[in-house]
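Researcher: Go.
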Amino acid sequence: MQRDLGRLADTNFDVVVVGGGIYGTTAAWDAALRGLSVALIDRADFGSGTSFNSAKTVHGGVRLLQSGNVLGLRQFVQERRALSRIAPHLIQPMPFVIPTDRSFSRHRWLMRLGFALNDLLAGDRNHGVDPANHLPHSRLLSRAECLRLNPFIDPDGVTGGIKWFDCQMHNSDRVNLSFVLSAEAKGAVVANYVECIGANRHNGRVNGITVRDRLNGEQFDIRARVVLNAAGPWAPSLLTKLIPDARPTLPHGLSKAMNLILEKPMAHQHAVGGQSNSRLLFLAPWRGFTLAGTSHTPFKSVPDTLSVTQPEVEEFLRDINNAFPGLSAELKDIRLVHRGLLPSQEDSATGVRLLKQSAVRDHRQDGLPGLISILGVRYTTARYTAQQAIDTVFSVLHVAATPCQTHNTPVIGGALNDVREFFESATNNTSPVPDHNTRERLARTYGSTHTRLLETIRNTPEDGEPLSSDCAITRAEVTHAVREEMAVHLSDALLRRTEAGSAGQPDETALRTAAETMAQELGWSNERITAEIADTQDIYELPV
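Model: Structure:
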């Protein structure tokens, strides 16, 4: 997968997708699978915006039962099942535990009834899913068992608990990238660091966009019969940029969402819930650390100014410690702050209320044929919203839509006949090069395509050396990120291609080794190496 801007400029596409977050990448993959000619661009790196801020959970929508939204719950169940089918190496079951108390809404028997109903409504949750990733029924916990599994909450008033299963993404950045790789494998032309700066129109119809290569400043046009605006929190402002005289047709409210990766490991492999000021927060084990989330606060500025300050993080830590007093989390425990923006509305009680449902806007109704916008809300349901968007693309093209295939077509790396056998054979291989832990990590990251990395390491053992004594990622993986996965900057390789920096800042040795490895591929000078390291370190710094 290479940046081929010549093909972007010289091809007439059916659809150009603007935005490489989870909604844009699933849309590009869907369109390519259905035989459309597709271009996909992102103004930065794929998945570096809101999609980077993920709680790593693939939800089954159990909370929707509180409002009686059975149809919404069924959609979440179907989408969780679809993702489990198509990316089984990256998505695994995760048990969740929340306490019950004597209040009416959280009484143990009412909760038991609610989750039993959820089990019934999600009765087909394992249909077509590999047995290794099946989700068991929920069950009621005694007070003692709940406090054993959830030792961080205040035990006062706890009467028991509920245990149920959702799914967790081993690497959400690789999930998003897998859609990019899969779209490209089906013929899509993709490029990161290409920014849309305007729309082209002919006879009142949008028929392409003008873009700027952010690496060299060159401008050119991408011709397309349909433009799909999937720019996430930038979607409303991009709409204005594309059509300056357009009436506002997308919600403009935004919420700043935040999740924390904490140094503290969890004793049990269970996600646990606790309440703070009537909000339910969660701690989840992830890569040997603890993921805490999620906070939501109103965001009044423009997306490009998004940042998280130390006081904001300290306030969130107070909420976390209020929900989980046994955790005693401090600033020094934070390895990484995930942040992103989500569409929302102001709420007088809570300050912010997320939109309940993603939306696809066909701008023909605004007098702008050839332009469609996606406004995404949930990571879990992105595939389904993308399906709706591509159905709309066919409608705009006045062509009968071919059936969507993304719900059961494995992404790159996901074509596994037996998940348990795959991991056992990958990790139990008798070859000493690479070692057992490296083989397991490669299998979980790259799925069925991990054998390419294994072959590289076995042919050139020095490439299998870790970046440092504290960072197990190998030079071969960094090289692969550049040659095969369009990593342009050091942060691309360390945060969104490999696992080197996705759970915290790599040490100095790892940063320099990775930068020097990329320099060999990309011809960086010593000054560029220093700048790339500094830019990557800045991602982990909190403004005071």
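Model: The CA atoms of residues 90 and 175 lie 7 Å apart.
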